[in-house]
UniProtKB/TrEMBL annotation:
Gene3D superfamilies attached to this UniProt entry: 2.60.40.4070
Name the UniProt record assigns to this protein: Gliding motility-associated C-terminal domain-containing protein
Amino acid sequence: MIVYNGVSTESGSENYLKFEPIENYKNLQIEIFNELGQKVYESKNYQKNGEVFRGYANVKGVFRKGKRLPTGTYFYILKYQNITGKSNTKQGYLFVR
């Protein structure tokens, strides 16, 4: 799995957290946290129907839903199944600017 983990809130179709090759994975579920461990984004159908992280919060709490997140480093947990149906978890960092 290749991870493109640089996210820019500037306009552009490729400015999001992306995992490739997407056709090799299914049921992508993701949670993204700020440096304090507070959840700022979650999706149970990541990279389907345009559902991607572009640097904006989508959960209530720390930031208003739909609000642009501050520049900085964030942490993600991705759960998915590979083409054979095996469940996997991937963790990593991403940078929002």
